[in-house]
Amino acid sequence: MEDEMPAEKPRAKTVGRPPHLSLDAIVAAAEHILETEGAEKLSMRRLADELDSAPMALYYHVRNKDELLLLLMEAQARRIERPELPEDPRERLIAVSIMLYELLADRLWIVQVVAGGDLIAPSALWFVEEMIGAIVDCGHTLEDAVYVYRTIWFTIVGDLIIRANGNQRRGRATGPTYEDQVVAGLVSGTHPRLAAVADRWAELNGRDTHREGLTAVVDGLLRSVETVKGR
């Protein structure tokens, strides 16, 4: 009788994270989706497809989408170099506000994320510290400083969301947008001022005036706090 071949031993199951995935690769793929498709398109399933992996494999590295978003925002915040800022507190507040706006304008997915919940990157809090510190250095209380900062923040986020949505609509449109058509149809008898600029409405409405606008907002807020304190 021929010797029986020994039975093949079953392979031991590997335990731990799949070898072809890494947290860095996951973050990089998620950033690509956010930058090219927007925050609303990012999901664990979409991310798994991007990585040619199974959705469950991602959970070896991140617990859920919120944790992934936090990692993404923190990664972005750590790449930002802190510039030399003006010594004058008003100029410093304006400079940080404009810098924050322009950084977010290049990363609109962050605006979508922070506008939809309470997620925040700890490494980005130096913006808040600088802004509140500048307001206090202008002679205001911490309570006033938080009010002024929050109003500037809401202005930045609101402006960017409106601009992003408007650009998307205009990108899909094959002609004038509905808003432009409505304004173009106004008559001087009922809307004299709007009718006077109707032919230039799209041009005027599309101008990028965020630097001038934020400067005006900062100056107006600082004056309004002074007025309240002087009553």
Description of the molecule:
This protein has 12 helices and no strands. It has 231 residues and is an all-alpha fold. Helix 6 crosses helix 8.
Short structural description:
With 231 residues, this protein is mainly α. The protein is built from twelve helices and no strands. The chain has helices at 23-37, 44-50, 55-58, 65-79, 89-105, 108-115, 125-137, 142-172, 178-184, 192-196, 201-205, 210-230.
Keywords:
single chain; 231 residues; mainly alpha; 0% strand; disordered N terminus
Low-confidence stretches: 1-18
Q: Helix tally?
A: 12
Order of SSEs: HHHHHHHHHHHH
Radius of gyration: 26 Å
Beta-strand content bin? under 5%
Main sheet overview: none
Secondary structure elements and their pairing?
Layout: H1 23-37, H2 44-50, H3 55-58, H4 65-79, H5 89-105, H6 108-115, H7 125-137, H8 142-172, H9 178-184, H10 192-196, H11 201-205, H12 210-230
